PRISE-like Rossmann-fold domain-containing protein
Amino acid sequence: EEQQSHIKHVSIDLTASGDKLASQLKEGGVKADYVFFYGYISPKNVSAMDPKAEEELVKANVPIFKNFLEALESAKLEPKRILLQTGGKNYGGQIGRARLPYIESDPQPRHLSQNFYYPQEDMLKKYCQDHPSTSWNVIRPFGVIGSVSKAGMNMMLPFAIIASVQAKKNAPIFFGGDIEEWQYEYLHSSARLTGFLSEWAVLENECANQAFNAHDGSPMSWDLFYNELARWYGAPGVAGPELDDSKFNDVVLAGGKDCPLGYGPPTRIRISRSAADWAKNDTNKTTYEQIIQESNGSIKVNAYEDNMEQFDMVDFVYYKIGQPSSAKFRRFGFSGFVDTIESVFEMYTDLAKMGIIPAPKVEAAKPMI
């Protein structure tokens, strides 16, 4: 409550015109030294990671940032710094093979796909050129871990639902990828640490007009995560990766001239057991409804039914998409670190307190030490 007392909430409509937004900012008494833009409109009826969503994402998200920048000018607000958060898709790894690790100065593969990050970034840089007293930052997290009541994307939330249902059925938690994906080390971005990095970036003069990757600095494999997940929710073990190649349905991504790297064979997402198919199973739906009923009101929403498109994302996140570099933010002086496995556990605990998912059955995660 003491922290909240320092915050004033002003409701604005980012889909409104710049002039209307400016009026809303003025009415709210907004004075901005530092602006952090996290506005995002998710696609309807399709995963945000699906290439089919690209055009819809551009049409929805480019105008809201344009409107906001116009509102700043119309309201005569002159912030010292504007920070725009985009993400790992900046590098095009979701398209296909790309140069690794992802480095902030890598060329953006604008010729290969539509990505709303690029026009947003262009508008921000142009705004700062036209307003020399304002500088910019772009922050690029990878697989954000955080607790909110509604999120356009939350790649880790479905795993808690799957684990709860499998535990209730006394069945192991299944992994749908192959052995290489099972052992691959993935980097994630805890929202709190990304917030600290963002605050650091806007307050450091040397960081003006720079883009930075953001991640926890603690690679986590699915092998490690799944075994902890089973312990957290009391599932009787883990059904690990399928070893029979004939049982996989591969999603083939781009290679050659059609991938960001410009050469090399296509990359693949290997799926033997689909989380999206699991979510459509009536037995699993009924089991989760039973879990809600038995919670005596502690679970207040049906996150299973409300997040069906998120299960599609589970199939995608097995993909060995590659590692972002930490060299730049380390060289500029940021030394933050988070144990990702502890961060996911904290997220599940927070979401349970919010009545969104079942609570873990253990007190704490085992840190990666």
